[in-house]
Structure formats: C-alpha cells, structure tokens
Amino acid sequence: LRPVNPYAVTKIAQDLIGYVYHESYGLKVVRTRAFNHEGPRREKVFGIPWYAYQIARMMKGFQDKELKIGNLETVRVVMDVRDTVRAYYLAMIHPEVKNHIFNICGDTPRKMQFFTDKLIELSGLKNVEQQIHKPFWRPHEIYYQHGDSTNHSELTGFKEEYDIETTLHDLLMYWVTKID
Q1: What is the β-pairing status of strands 109-111 and 75-77?
Q2: Pairwise CA distance, residues 109 & 160, whole Å
Q3: Which of 34, 62, 69, 106 could crosslink 79 through cysteines, CB 3.0-4.6 Å?
Q4: Strand 31-34 with 109-111, pairing
Q5: Which tens digit of pLDDT belongs to each residue from 77-97?
C-alpha cells in the first residue's frame, strides 16, 4: 500500500480498522477496494460526472461548446455504480466470506479520453472543443489503475450487467434532466 493522496490514506485506514475488528473481536468483516464507478446521480465533483454536467449544459444552451478537461491520458477501469452496489451485496451475503479482501472493479481499462469522446457522441453535439484546464490535474497522478476482481467473481458469481455506454448515457441524461 503506497497512498499518494489523503483520500487513499483514508481508504487504507478504513481497511485496516476492519481487519483489526475482525481479528480482535471476531466481527464478520468484508473488506472491499472499489475502483472507479459511475452512474446517474453521481455528483459533478468527480471527473466523468463533471464532463457529463458540462455537456448537459451545452445541450441546454447554457454553456459554449468548450469542455474543460483534466488529464485524459490516464487509464481507468470504470464500472456502473449499480453493478458496484450489487457486487458489495453479493460479497456481504456470501456464507464463505471471512475477512476477505475484494477488489470491486470492471474489466476494461480505458483512457479518460474515451469517456469524454463517448459523452460527446451520446449528446449528439458537434464541434465540442476539449480544453485542458490545469486546475483539474492532480499533483500526484496515477496514470494506470486497474484492479483484479477475479477472487470476488469466482466466489460470488458476480458479472457486470451494465455496459459503459448505458452507464454514460444514464449519467448524461441525469444531468440533462437536473439542469434548469
């Protein structure tokens, strides 16, 4: 474990607290390490929802066709939040789970550029210019992030139900309906 930001430190602390409670008090603890997940109702303080929000504003005529972006060269595996919640549930109810650690993640790594391009395509907008906005760059960027969820899938039978296009469409439509 080598955290590079305060958020990562909080995740490690939660993980270790779960471990200590299992070891010290026999609590049935399931430790999960969720990777990127997106979907409708995701707040715009995160990258992909921020892009969807801006594109929804463009669709409604509230913003010029200039998408403010961060580093689109990073690679992430993104899973639909509805699948993520189901994965948590399956891990929680499975009888053989005893202090397991599960990565909860999708299978397909993609550059962030894929997500902005797909959102623009789903919007039907033409001639959207993607402009790098330096404040959206992280001081310690993780350029490639992809977990292995094999142990979770094999134990629980979990398979993703939502494809990324559905996820991005539903996220975009959430913002379209929310913006007045």
Answers
A1: antiparallel
A2: 14
A3: 106
A4: unpaired
A5: 999 999 999 999 999 898 776
Quickly list DSSP for 80-148: EHHHHHHHHHHHHH-TT-SS-EEEE--S-EEEHHHHHHHHHHHHT--S-EEEE-GGGS-SS---B----
Angle at 19 between CA 158 and CA 34, to 5 degrees: 35
User: Residue 4: beta bridge partners?
Assistant: none
- 118, two tokens: 């797909």
87 close to 160: Cβ distance less than 8 angstroms: no
| Residue 106 backbone zone (phi > 0: left; psi -120 to 50: alpha; other: beta) | beta
Identify any residues that bridge with 104 across adjacent strands, giving them in sequence order.
Answer: 34
Measured between alpha carbons, how far is residue 105 from residues 71, 85, 136, 159 in Å? 21, 11, 24, 10
Question: What is the pairing mode between strands 129-132 and 66-69?
Answer: parallel
**And the tokens for 124?**
């039907």
**Contact (CB, 8 A) for 120 and 55:** yes
* The model's pTM: 0.90
Report d(CA 80, CA 165) in Å as an integer. Answer: 10
